[in-house]
Amino acid sequence: MTEPLARAAQDQLFRMARTRNAFSDKPVSDALLRELYDLLKWGPTSGNVCPARFVFLTTPQAKARLAPLMSRANRGKAIGAAVQAIVAYDLKFADKIPELFPHNPGSAAWFADPAVAEETAFRNGSLQGAYLILAARTLGLDCGPMSGFDRAGVDAEFFAGTTWRSNFLCNIGYGTDEAMFERLPRLAFEDACEVL
Fold it and tell me: What is the pLDDT of residues 21-73, one digit of tens each?
C-alpha cells in the first residue's frame, strides 16, 4: 500500500514550488538531465505510448537557435537558465508500441488514423511534459514552463525531416527570486470540480 508523501515533499512539488522567471548561473549536468528523464519516464500514459520527446538545449549555440523563435517576453525569461527544454511529441510514437506494449504489439493499429495519432501524441506528450516539471522539482531543480514561441519555426529549426512536433518550452535550472510574481490565486474546489 502506498503511503501519502510527507507534507514537506508535497510542498516541494506543489504548494511552495514556483514558476521561475530568473535563474542563477549554476549549471545542470548531463548526468542530472539523464536522472531527470529516468524519473519522469515512469509517469503513466494511455497504453504506455510514451510519445514525448525532449530536446535539452544547454550550449550557447543551441540556445541561440531558439532565441529568435521565442516571444520577446520569454526570451528575457530564458536568459540565464541552465537548460531550455523543448517538450515535443512524436507523431510516429506507435512505431515503438511493440517495445512499449509487448503484450499487445498489434495495438499500434489503433493509431493508424493520423488524427487519432496526433490527438493521442499531444495529450500524452503534455502529460509527460508535466511529469518533467514534477521530476525536476523532486531533484531540486526549478522550472519555467511557457508557450509564447513560433511553433512552426521551432519545428523547422529543430525537427525538420522528422515526425517530432513541439508542444511547449521549459526553462530548467536553479531559480532565483528575481522578477518573481506574488503567489497567484487558484480556483476553489467549488469552481473547478464536480462530484457526481
Answer: 899 989 999 999 999 999 999 999 999 999 999 999 999 999 999 999 999 98
Asked if residue 144 lies in contact with residue 73, where contact means CB atoms within 8 angstroms, the answer is no
Interval 169-190: pLDDT, tens: 999 999 998 888 888 999 999 9
Edge-first strand order for the sheet with 83-90 is 52-57, 83-90, 164-173, 142-146
Q: Determine contact, residues 182/21, Cβ cutoff 8 Å.
A: no
pTM over 0.85: yes
Kindly write down the DSSP assignment for every residue of 33-61, as one continuous string. HHHHHHHHTTS--GGG---EEEEEE-SHH
Tell me the CA end-to-end span of the chain in Å, nearest whole number.
27
Structural domains of the chain ordered from first start: 27-175 (3.40.109.10)
Neighbours of 123 (CB within 10 A): 14
Closest C-alpha to 55, from 45, 65, 47: 65
CB neighbours (10 Å) of residue 101?
A: 18
